[in-house]
Amino acid sequence: MQHQQKTPIPRFCHHLTIIVAIIFFAGITATLIQYHKLPATIPVLQSFTSDHAQLGPKIAIFYLPFVALMLFLLLHYLEIKAAYPVLRNNKPPLSHKQRQNGIITFCLMKNSILLYFTYSLLNDLTIALGRDRILQQWHAYLFLLFLCGIFSLGIVRGFLLEKRQ
Predict the structure, then answer these.
(1) How far is CA 146 from the centre of its chain?
(2) Rounded CA gap, 165 and 162, in Å?
(3) For the residues 23-45, what does the mean pLDDT come to?
(4) Closest CA to 66 of 37, 27, 95
(5) pLDDT at 139 over 90
(6) How many CA atoms lie within 13 A of 77 on its CB side?
(7) Angle, nearest 10°, between helix axes 96-128 and 137-164?
(8) How far apart are CA 52 and CA 45, in angstroms?
(9) What distance in Å separates the CA atoms of residue 125 and residue 74, rounded to the nearest whole number?
(10) Confidence category of residue 5, pLDDT binned at 50, 70, 90
(11) Measured between alpha carbons, how far is residue 164 from residues 10, 65, 97, 157 in Å?
């Protein structure tokens, strides 16, 4: 059996991750700067269809970025693991192109999620400061459609690469 090497992560994934991380930490920094201006209780769970919201302590503004960071780290770990060849029962190991497809899919998903959650954080900060929401219902649906598109294209491309092999 031939020994396969680790598939390198594409350069654009590194650059994209750095840019998105800078945007995320800029959103966190903006929230920290405005934190003292927040009221003691802020809206934490909002419906897209009504103005009724549940209230929580102002520290709750950081719950969503924490979840985003954990999802980002999980997907980053999976992106790194996708670069290594894995022995599969009764099947040949994934090819270089198949592993690169997984890397790119995880890269796009993790960065999309972090960007959307940063946008959502800024929306929560805007609402907590008493201004109109910037995140509309169609933004959430568009994001979910975009994320499903990335995932679906990754799967379809993976199947096509497997058939070509």
Answers:
(1) 11
(2) 5
(3) 91
(4) 27
(5) no
(6) 6
(7) 170
(8) 9
(9) 26
(10) confident
(11) 22, 41, 11, 10
Q: 19 or 43, which is more confident?
A: 19
The confidence band for 15, taking pLDDT boundaries of 50, 70 and 90, is very high
The rounded Cα 158 to chain-centroid distance in angstroms is 21
Residue 93 has a CB neighbour count (10 Å cut-off) of: 16
Q: How far is CA 41 from CA 38, 63, 160, in A?
A: 8, 14, 52
* 13 pLDDT more than 70: yes
Burial 36-50 (b: 16+ CB within 10 A, else e): eebeeebbbebeeee
Write the pLDDT tens digit of every residue in 50-71: 565 678 899 999 998 999 999 9
Residue 158, class by beta-carbon neighbours within 10 Å (0-12 exposed, 13-18 middle, 19+ buried)?
A: middle
Closest CA to 23 of 137, 114, 103: 114
Task: Return d(Cα 144, Cα 107) in angstroms, integer.
Answer: 16
* Strand residue runs (E) in 15-158: 41-46, 53-57
Q: What is the DSSP letter of 54?
A: E
Query: How high is the mean pLDDT of the chain?
Result: 87
CA neighbor of 5 nearest in space, from 106, 90, 93 = 93
